[in-house]
Design goal:
Elements (H helix, E strand, L loop, with lengths): L3 E5 L3 E5 L2 E5 L1 H11 L3 E9 L2 H12 L3 E8 L5 E7 L5 E5 L12 H7 L4 E5 L6 H13 L5 E5 L9 H10 L2 E5 L3 H8 L5 H11 L4 E5 L5 E4 L4 E4 L12 H15 L3 H16 L10 H8 L10
Parallel strand pairs: 1-4, 1-8, 2-6, 4-5, 8-9, 9-10, 10-11
Antiparallel strand pairs: 2-3, 6-7, 11-12, 12-13
Length: about 300
């Protein structure tokens, strides 16, 4: 039995120096979740244009359901220009007022989220009030048993304290990076070192788990009972687009499988390292990375 895992929010073309590639954190997340054994879907919106048709087709080819993607006759399919600095890190130029900024709540989408075992969402998909309202309304329609994963995904000025607070109130799991924690720590007055800041954030907002990533310096997971630090898996970095999304997908699937935190952290690190070694956000994962997830019977239920 496969768990139903949904990414909700932005869906777009990443325009890389090597050409356009399917992107958007929710879609990347869903593709990686599908690769490691989930029944995955994306909820978003594309333009009623050829660009949108190609984007939806490519997602379907990845084995991800497109039933939650609707066409928008008034706004174009989203694009992001992606550039890289000397270390392989990415810089985004995000096109404003595109189709995924106008997600609407429909009975069909509410029915889809009603089947979810886990839903991942972020702040970028909520930058417009229309989509922000729809995403939060759909999350409220999900089963109480569904794992709600908030990937902060802070991009430029496309977030606010109000959005972060509303998202934390809906979330079970928070994923954030070493670049995002200082922003949130300043915004919410978090004091002390890393472990104290994360535990304050976790307990203050009633989170079951915080997942903290720091690139080449590894990651840390805390559920209030256990603190797990994981070294980064050595790799030759081509680009880092999609690595965080693959980490989030791997953690989510590990939680649904009931794995202990140390195993989750190790497997997620291995998947993210592979993604960093390839071009694009969703390279095809080798069987050796997929096997640990798909070789076991999927007994749904969180370990946290």
């Amino acid at each position: 039995m496969k768990p139903q895992v949904i990414g909700i929010g932005e869906f777009l073309w990443d325009v890389l120096p090597t050409g356009p590639r399917m992107g958007g954190a929710p879609a990347n997340f869903a593709c990686h979740a599908a690769a490691v054994g989930a029944k995955a879907a994306v909820i978003s919106r594309v333009g009623a244009d050829e660009s949108g048709v190609r984007l939806v087709r490519e997602l379907a080819e990845r084995g991800v359901s497109t039933e939650g993607i609707t066409p928008d006759p008034h706004h174009p399919t989203g694009t992001v220009n992606v550039k890289f600095d000397g270390s392989g890190k990415h810089v985004f130029e995000i096109t404003p007022d595109v189709a995924w900024d106008h997600i609407e709540v429909t009975p069909a989408l509410q029915q889809l989220v009603g089947t979810a075992d886990a839903i991942c969402f972020g702040t970028l998909g909520q930058r417009n009030a229309v989509s922000g309202f729809a995403i939060r309304r759909l999350l409220e329609s999900a089963p109480s048993s569904a794992l709600k994963v908030f990937d902060a995904n802070l991009r430029q000025n496309h977030f606010s304290r109000a959005t972060i607070e509303a998202s934390l109130a809906l979330a079970d799991v928070l994923k954030l990076s070493d670049e995002e924690l200082p922003v949130i720590a300043s915004m919410f007055g978090l004091q002390g070192g890393l472990r104290e800041q994360l535990e304050t954030l976790r307990s203050r907002h009633g989170l079951k788990l915080i997942v903290y990533t720091r690139g080449g310096d590894g990651s840390a997971l805390t559920d209030g009972r256990e603190w797990v630090e994981q070294a980064a898996v050595p790799t030759s970095v081509r680009d880092t687009v999609g690595a965080g999304d693959s980490f989030t997908a791997s953690v989510t699937m590990g939680l649904l499988l009931g794995w202990p935190l140390d195993r989750i952290a190790q497997s997620a690190s291995e998947v993210a390292a592979f993604v960093c070694s390839k071009d694009g956000a969703v390279p095809l994962l080798p069987q050796a990375l997929r096997d640990p997830f798909v070789s076991e019977r999927l007994e749904l239920g969180s370990s946290v």
